[in-house]
Design a protein that fits this description.
13 strands; Rossmann fold; elongated; 11 helices; alpha/beta; about 40% helix; six-stranded mixed β-sheet; SBP_2_dom; Substrate-binding domain-containing protein; Peripla_BP_I; 2 domains
Length: about 350
């Protein structure tokens, strides 16, 4: 099948060339620079991506990091916590105080208050609800404890010293650009989309990026359904979609966990004419890509290493260290990780950091 380059795909490759990515499993430790623990002094650079390829000292002053994240009721979330714990274990001077994973907002707030009372050196926080945790995170910052906000943003810039984010819009762009490269020479190609929860901004961002990238090669989404990031929801939504669309050229599923259900629906319907692109980067999907005999041809990474990067940044901030390869001093205020496409050609590179759905 001919490959039709698009401006969106080219832009993504250009971004890869000029931006380095701070992904815990793919970069080494970083080199030193100044930091601050107060919100007012936290102003600094915003980086679409950054790297830590220069080695920092193997150890430094002791660092006590409080870590809190939602319950691991999702493969990606489980991988988030596992990677954070593994990252902290790399540094003999780091003591990680891990709060019990919870989806109870009030319990998570009390966990952060405990960290504040205990006087930890830094807090890495993936909030169940960013808005609900903003006030207590600001309280920590006011107490001189730098907060590293992971994935779900607070509603105030004063609540975090640094923020590590995935790129939801970029996921959609990557998925759409890949599909353009595969079927963009078919002006009547039928494109389907299985989204996550439609009310969430992250789902809206993913869908917008997907639509924008498809429009660059003259395509658009023909059939779309929303699931709920669960296996059962993915199977039900996809079954409905397949009944409505007797022929599909390409389908993007936003989430690899719900993708288990998506693939079950496709198998049950006996459909094999379509190519499937996943989302997030699970080992399950990568194994299918590597095997080469599945409808799954690619997945788009949404890094499950974000909290691990948060641990790395917390250590650097407390130890007055800097990210390597940056001319500017200080750890950036915002780091947004790239959303690369994993295919049979590069899957071996990404498998080590893949999570189990």
């Amino acid at each position: 099948m001919s490959v039709r380059p698009t401006r969106s795909l080219g832009a993504l490759f250009a971004l890869t060339a000029v931006s380095a990515v701070l992904v815990a499993g793919c970069t080494s430790n970083t080199a030193p620079a100044p930091s601050t623990s107060s919100a007012a002094a936290a102003a600094g650079s915003t980086a679409a991506a950054a790297t830590g390829s220069s080695a920092a000292p193997a150890s430094g002053e002791p660092v006590v990091i409080g870590f809190s994240a939602p319950a691991a009721d999702h493969g990606w979330m489980g991988a988030i916590t596992k990677a954070a714990v593994a990252e902290a274990a790399k540094y003999p001077e780091v003591e990680l105080r891990q709060a019990e994973a919870t989806n109870d907002v009030n319990l998570q707030i009390s966990q952060i208050e405990t960290f504040i009372n205990d006087g930890v050196d830094a807090i890495v926080l993936l909030p169940f609800d960013g808005a609900a945790l903003t006030e207590v995170a600001t309280k920590a910052m006011d107490a001189g404890i730098p907060v590293i906000n992971v994935d779900r943003e607070f509603t105030s810039p004063l609540a975090a010293r640094a923020t590590v984010l995935g790129d939801n819009y970029g996921m959609g762009v990557s998925a759409g650009s890949y599909i353009c490269s595969q079927v963009g020479d078919k002006p009547d190609a039928v494109i389907a989309e299985v989204a996550g929860i439609d009310s969430l901004p992250l789902t809206q961002d993913r869908s917008k990026g997907f639509a924008d990238a498809l429009s660059d090669c003259g395509l658009s989404v023909t059939n779309r359904v929303a699931a709920d990031f669960t296996v059962q929801g993915g199977e039900t939504a996809t079954s409905n979609l397949l009944q409505a669309a007797p022929k599909i050229d390409a389908l993007w599923n936003h989430d690899d966990d719900q993708g288990v259900g998506v693939l079950a629906a496709i198998e049950n319907a006996g459909r094999s004419e379509l190519l499937v692109v996943g989302g997030a980067g699970s080992k399950n999907m990568m194994d299918l890509i590597q095997g080469g005999d599945s409808v799954v041809k690619a997945t788009v990474i949404y890094p499950s290493t974000q909290a691990a990067d948060g641990i790395k940044l917390a250590r650097l901030i407390v130890q007055n260290a800097n990210l390597g390869d940056l001319q500017s001093a200080g750890v950036p205020r915002t780091i947004q990780l790239f959303a690369p496409v994993v295919t049979a050609e590069n899957v071996a590179e990404y498998l080590p950091n893949a999570f189990e759905s």
